[in-house]
Write a structure and sequence with these properties.
Blueprint: E1 6-10, H1 22-30, E2 33-36, H2 39-48, E3 55-57, H3 63-75, E4 80-83, H4 95-104, E5 108-112, H5 117-125, E6 132-137, H6 144-151, E7 157-162, H7 167-177, E8 182-187, E9 195-200, H8 201-210, E10 217-221
Parallel strand pairs: 1-4, 1-5, 2-3, 2-4, 6-7
Antiparallel strand pairs: 7-10, 8-9, 8-10
Helix pairs in contact: 3-4, 7-8
């Protein structure tokens, strides 16, 4: 049986293009194909580091056709690097479905570690890091209330991703179903307008009622225990 290629899961910068490892650059150069969530976004990174590897779009809505193509590529013995728009593939994106398909065909999978918005925000937040839960994006409708109510009983820092269009609604829901806890919002992390906004949930909601939300957000909700902050 011919040896398959390697599927590399390559973490890329979440903002500042300097936040990439030497190994990631080498893998992107040496792979025969890069599967990218948005090839236009990825090209900015590739051009910055003079990487000429061919790219192929891979995202949620084309995965049914792209996964077989990428797996066939691996089956010819050629390596493929998968990247997301920013950060680590497989976190709140469809990369894990490609990874599962590669594993099922006995392809080797290697992760090239690097940036992640959730971890970057968490370690700078000042909230407890001994235990945390990552929820990604909340459901827009069905299951939203139930999920928030379940999160209220978890003894951990809660991490949620959100867009500028829904940040105010989400903060209102957090206030209603989880409570007015200590919280931190990370905005535009590692970019020119990076901001960490700290306060109670009600204070953060007031902030965005006064200031137009811009950029992508990481919301972190602290434990409901004042003793852990001292």
């Amino acid at each position: 049986m011919a040896e398959t290629g390697i599927l590399y899961i390559v973490a890329t910068p979440i903002g500042n293009l300097e936040d990439i490892s030497f190994r990631a650059i080498r893998i992107l150069k040496e792979s025969s194909l890069i599967a990218a969530e948005d090839t236009r976004q990825t090209k900015k990174l590739l051009n910055h580091y003079n990487i000429s590897t061919s790219t192929l779009s891979y995202y949620e809505h084309n995965r049914f056709t792209r996964i077989p193509q990428i797996v066939n590529h691996l089956n010819t013995g050629k390596d493929v690097a998968v990247v997301t728009d920013a950060g680590t593939p497989g976190i709140s994106d469809p990369a894990y479905k490609l990874i599962r398909a590669a594993i099922e065909t006995n392809a080797r999978v290697e992760a090239i570690p690097g940036p992640s918005a959730s971890i970057t925000a968490l370690v700078a937040s000042g909230l407890p890091t001994d235990r945390f839960i990552f929820e990604g994006f909340l459901p827009h409708k069905k299951g939203r209330k139930g999920k928030l109510e379940r999160l209220a009983s978890i003894d951990a820092t809660i991490i949620i991703y959100e867009s500028p269009k829904r940040i105010q609604r989400t903060l209102k829901d957090i206030l209603e179903y989880i409570g007015n806890r200590p919280a931190v919002i990370g905005r535009e992390l590692t970019k020119m307008h990076e901001e960490l906004i700290r306060g109670k949930v009600s204070e953060l909601l007031s902030y965005f009622n006064r200031n137009t939300p811009r950029g992508e957000f990481v919301i972190m909700i602290g434990k409901d225990d004042p003793n852990v902050y001292f």
